[in-house]
């Protein structure tokens, strides 16, 4: 049952981060049922649950993830590659991993990774399913998700087969999700489509996806070889695609355009929402095309930056600052365990803080919460803490009281863990309250 009902439950902590407002020291949040009904200083109020020396944030939003992927075997524990790993070689390993994986094991992997998301304080995830396993895993997991069915293939038959499989899956699961959603303002699971990437997926798949009315995501401008392939039809990506038998036999590669940005701007592609994964290599002159003034009224385009994954491959500095300065929305994703050490957005936030200490902490926090919720059309009911939104929370332990620093620094310059995750005003994971 949704809405304001039942007795009010009050939570307190040393710091509360509403995101759309200044952090509140010694703050408290009032919850009634699944909804926040008040937020402010604690003063002398009695509370039901005091997290003590901790911070309450909105639940974190992971805007790009593949729960079905596992770590690659050559890295027992992630470390930045030195020299950086060539991403096309990494793609070879991922494809090999897929060929060797028993399809049954995807379900176990996805379920294990979904539990990790909850432990990491995630309450909303954009996940891409290739094997159909992350959908069931996320339905069983007490967090919100948009599950994007992947469509891939440059060869017509392969593209048709993956398209058919994606739609069969969507048609099988969507009615039940629609029924569940009908009576709610907030969604728990939503279905989307993911044309994989310009270098792997035929243009007609993108155009067809754009007419579906579903949420859409795609990998775009991820590596320099992608633009090379689009512009010339040649390069290391083509060699790789020929090697694995994915290059069209008739050699008829017809990209939508010579620039990755064309894949969200050409004709009817301009009408849809797009959640763009990566965007490492957008041309400077194309960035304005993602700014609000370039979008149709009500349209949402956002870039999900995966900082540790980009770092692993030695990609050039991501244009997040230029995008943010133009008013474009940049949110954070982890990508998969095949390229990232954890599925923790808090770890990504702390990584961003280390590589760009001058970026305001409030911006990093917004990228990890409200901006991802906006991209997934969930900002009406989550992504920040304010009256009327759902009680989706991430509680993080803080350093000792005598530790100096701004409130954002207390979270970002520490390595202390998430201690609790709440969804809809209910605790869904708890790992002990330090000092509590
Ligand atoms: Zn990805």
Oligomer: single chain
Number of strands: 16
Distance between the termini: 31 Å
Mean pLDDT: 91
Q: If you had to describe this structure to a student in words, what would you say it looks like?
A:
The chain is of the alpha/beta class and 436 residues long. It folds into two domains: 98 residues, Urease, subunit C, domain 1 (Roll); 316 residues, Metal-dependent hydrolases (TIM Barrel, Alpha-Beta Barrel). It is built from 14 helices and 16 strands. The strands form three sheets. Strands 1, 2, 3, 4, 5, 14, 15 and 16 form an eight-stranded mixed beta sheet that branches. The protein has a four-stranded parallel beta sheet with strand order 6-7-8-9. Strands 10-11-12-13 form a four-stranded parallel beta sheet. The two termini are 31 Å apart. The mean pLDDT is 91.
Structure, briefly:
The chain has 436 residues and is of the alpha/beta class. The protein contains 14 helices and 16 strands. The longest helix has 27 residues, at 156-182.
Overview features:
31% helix; 2 domains; 4-stranded parallel sheet; 436 residues; 16 strands; 22% strand; alpha/beta; binds zinc ion; 14 helices; Urease, subunit C, domain 1; TIM Barrel
């Amino acid at each position: 049952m949704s809405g304001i009902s039942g007795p009010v439950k009050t939570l307190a902590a040393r710091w509360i981060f509403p995101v759309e407002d200044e952090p509140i020291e010694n703050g408290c949040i009032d919850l009634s049922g699944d909804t926040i009904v008040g937020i402010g200083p604690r003063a002398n109020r009695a509370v039901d649950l005091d997290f003590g020396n901790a911070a309450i944030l909105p639940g974190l939003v992971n805007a790009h993830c593949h729960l079905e992927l596992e770590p690659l075997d050559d890295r027992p524990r992630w470390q930045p590659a030195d020299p950086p790993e060539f991403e096309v070689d990494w793609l070879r390993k991922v494809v090999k991993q897929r060929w060797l994986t028993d399809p049954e094991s995807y379900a176990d992997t996805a379920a294990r990774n979904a539990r990790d998301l909850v432990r990491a304080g995630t309450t909303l995830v954009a996940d891409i399913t290739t094997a159909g396993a992350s959908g069931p895993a996320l339905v069983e997991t007490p967090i919100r998700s948009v599950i994007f069915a992947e469509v891939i293939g440059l060869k017509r038959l392969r593209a048709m087969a993956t398209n058919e499989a994606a739609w069969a899956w969507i048609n099988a699961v969507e009615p039940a999700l629609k029924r569940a959603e009908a009576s709610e303002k907030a969604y728990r699971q939503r279905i989307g489509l993911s044309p994989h990437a310009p270098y792997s997926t035929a243009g007609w798949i993108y155009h067809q996806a754009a007419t579906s009315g579903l949420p859409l995501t795609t990998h775009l401008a991820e590596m320099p070889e992608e633009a090379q392939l689009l512009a010339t039809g040649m390069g290391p990506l083509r060699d790789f695609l020929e090697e694995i038998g994915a290059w069209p036999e008739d050699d008829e590669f017809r990209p939508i355009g010579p620039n990755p940005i064309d894949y969200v701007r050409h004709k009817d592609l301009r009408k849809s929402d797009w959640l763009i994964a990566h965007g490492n290599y957008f041309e400077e002159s194309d960035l304005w095309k993602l700014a609000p003034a370039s979008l149709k009224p009500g349209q949402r385009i956002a870039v999900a930056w995966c900082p540790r994954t980009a770092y692993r491959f030695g990609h050039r500095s991501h244009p997040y600052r230029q995008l943010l300065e133009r008013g474009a929305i940049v949110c954070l994703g982890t990508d998969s365990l095949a390229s990232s050490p954890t599925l923790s957005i808090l770890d990504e936030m702390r990584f961003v803080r280390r590589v760009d200490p001058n970026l305001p902490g409030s911006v990093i926090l917004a990228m990890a919460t409200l901006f991802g919720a906006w991209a997934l059309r969930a900002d009406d009911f989550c992504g920040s803490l304010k009256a009327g939104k759902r009680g989706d929370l991430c509680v993080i332990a803080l350093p000792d009281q005598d530790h100096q620093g701004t409130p954002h620094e207390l979270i970002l310059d520490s390595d202390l863990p998430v201690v609790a995750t709440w969804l809809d005003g209910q605790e869904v994971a708890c790992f002990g309250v330090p000092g509590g």
